[in-house]
Structure formats: C-alpha cells, structure tokens
Amino acid sequence: MKSHLLLPLLFSSICLNNAKCFDFHYPAVFNFGDSNSDTGDLVAGIGAQLHPPNGQTYFKTPAGRFCDGRLIIDFLTDAMDLPFLNAYLESLGAPVFHKGCNFAAAGSTIRPATATSVSPFSFVIQVEQFVRFQSRVLELLAKGRKYSKYLPSASSFTDALYTFDIGQNDLAGAFYSKTFDQIVAGIPSTLEEFETGLKILYEQGARKYWIHNTGPLGCLPQNIAFFGTDPSKLDELGCVSGHNQAAKLFNLQLHGLTKKFQAQKPDATVTYVDIYAIKSNLIANYSKNGFEQPIMACCGYGGPPLNYNSQISCGETKVLNGTSVTVQACDDSSEYVNWDGIHYTEAANQYVASQILTGKYSDPPFADKMPFLLKLKF
To answer: Which residues form the signal peptide (predicted)?
Structure first.
C-alpha cells in the first residue's frame, strides 16, 4: 500500500481576512450531505446493503460508508481531535452524539426527494431531523446529568461547526432527463432550497458554517460510461465536459450564495471550500500525487478503461449474461482515485482532506494565517 504525501501535523485557531478567528477546537460537528460524507445514514435509514470489500482498508468490514475506508469528513473530524460522527439514524451499536451527529445520507439531494429518489433524506429533511435532534437533546439534558455523556451540551449547538457537502446528486441525476441548459437554469432554485436550510439552522443557533462545493462530476466512471461514449464529449482528462461545466456553474453560484449569506449574518462565520479544484488537481496530477489510476474504478466490473458496469455494484453477486459474477476490489486501492465508479477511495479522500487543511482552497483563505502546526493523525 502506498503512502501518499501529507501535511506534517492540528489547528489551534486561524484568523480569517475579516479579522475573525476560526477556532478549530470545536465541541461538536453537525454534518449534512450525501454519500461523500454519509457515515451510515442510508444503510440504517432504508436498510440498504453494503457488501465487502466496502470498508476493507480501515474498518475491515462495511461501515456504512460507500468507500473502502474513511471519508473526507472522517479525516477532518480526526484532525479536530473529534471522534468519527455517528449517523443520526443508526440505532444499534454505540450511537453516542456527545461530539456531534451526521445527518448526511447517500443519494441525497438539495431538492426535495421524489418517489424515485435513491434517498428520501433530502437536505430539508436532514435539517428537520437536526431540529428534532436538538429539541430532543435539550429535553433530555433538562432531566438530569445522566444523559450528558451521550449528548452534546446545550452550548454546543452554537459553538459547533456545521459542515455541508451536497449538490452532486442534483446535478448528476438531472443529466438523465434534462438538457444542459435546463440543468443550468435550475441551479438558482436548487440553491434557494439550500439557503432556506442554512437560515433554519441559523435560527436554531448555528453560527459556524463550513461549505464544500461539488467536485468534477464528469470524471466519475459512472458518468463517463453513460454520457462519454462520444469522444467529442470528453475533455483532455477523459472526463465528460458538460458535467464538469455544470458543476463549475453550480459552484460559482454557491460561492456567491455563501458571500451573500455571510453579509446578511455578520455574526456568523461562513467558509467556502473549493473541493472541485482539489479533486480536479488530483486527477490531472495523479502520478505526482502517488496514484496510478485517476479514473478507473478499483471495485467494479468490466475491466479497463473504466471497470464500471451500472448493472452491478461493488461487492455484489449477480448473474450477467448467464454467468454469476462477484464484483471484487483491485489489489491495492491506494493506487486508485476512484473506489466504485461513483465514490473516491480512502487514499483519495485522505489526499483531499490534507489539501483542505492547507487553507488555500478556502474562502476566506487561511493559508497565510498559519502560525501553527497541523497534527494530523492520518
């Protein structure tokens, strides 16, 4: 297994350009999103099945994550000296929420879910779940100290970091039924839904927002397999140009929304993180960053160049063309950027997290305000 080059070592506090200090010693983190940061909500919420080799790299068993190991959010909470976030809907095991809670669910969209949606837990539902969670926590805390080791403190809801990584599925799903122009025309109303959720959280006490934009959708094997059969639709990296262009336009407007929200809520701290730039740089410079396969899936079926087949997913066993097939992983997932055709490997997530923590991909940036060491344990 390869070791990818990382930063040497945790934040104490970072003063942003607006003179506010961004303190990374948070009492809790509350996360909202899709499969990029789902630590078990979809699996618990709808009884979805994840088979080995999912989870093989770190957890040694499927752990609710659509990945061979840890996600970006896992690495970020680890860097903050916080435990991995438990999924809100996970009722078995050890659902301790003292340091936060994860409402993200794979397949979720910003827009309200429909009858055909992969996940019923759209962004507004996740926000409503948080509101109920907060109300229930305060009720239980009022009954005495016996619950305090399992639940966040009342003050944590204002002092916590609220993280967001959602929007990918709104764009990717739309390409199956809409034209590029229709998709672009729908971005403002999608972001209105997102803004509504941010405002509800603000009313509940949220003051520290950490918002990821969406990545280069056109570089996912799933999208290349379906939309990239015509070479003229691909860019120089072999990615679907239209998908990436839509992602850029979405991100441009999302960035504008974060600036507007910050101006409207001066007592809040809003940080926008350019995940698109980090992931596209990784794919463009994969070899330099210690990877050997920038596009092809590690756990897939079909062989090069994509090793992806929409009829069967990682770990599944099915009969295809009269033959029983089991989808297995590649020999070394650390050589691959992509895990299963849709999601990134732990190694790629680790790289992305390390780049986020440099501060140079954030607005406001904090790369020039780093008189401290990062003590990253990964």
So the answer is: 1-21
Count of domains for the chain: 1
The tens digit of pLDDT for each residue in 139-183 reads 999 998 888 889 999 999 999 999 999 999 999 999 999 999 999
> Tell me, what DSSP letter sits at residue 10?
-
Cβ-based neighbour number of residue 249 at 10 Å:
15
Confidence of residue 48 (pLDDT cuts 50, 70, 90): confident
**Whole-number Cα distances in Å, 346 to 65, 71, 148, 225, 362:** 10, 6, 33, 23, 22
pTM of the model: 0.92
| Predicted confidence (pLDDT) per residue in 336-345, tens digit | 999 999 999 9
Question: Per DSSP, what are the bridge partners of residue 87?
Answer: 102
Domain span including residue 266 = 29-293+358-363
Which residue is associated with the tokens 């094997």? 221
Q: Catalytic site residues?
A: 35, 340, 343
Handedness of CA 360, 364, 367, 373 (dihedral sign): negative
Q: Give a yes or no: residue 198 inside a domain.
A: yes
User: Which CATH number do you get for residue 176?
Assistant: 3.40.50
E strand or H helix at 270, and its extent? Answer: strand 269-273
d(CA 131, CA 134): 5
Each residue's pLDDT tens digit, 203-255:
999 999 999 999 999 999 999 999 999 999 999 999 999 999 999 999 999 99
112 within a domain of the structure (yes/no): yes
Cα–chain-centroid distance for residue 31?
9
Taking alpha carbons only, the member of 272, 30, 27, 268 closest to residue 159 is 27
Residue type, 242: G
Indicate whether 78 belongs to any domain. yes
Pairing of β 100-102 and β 29-33: parallel
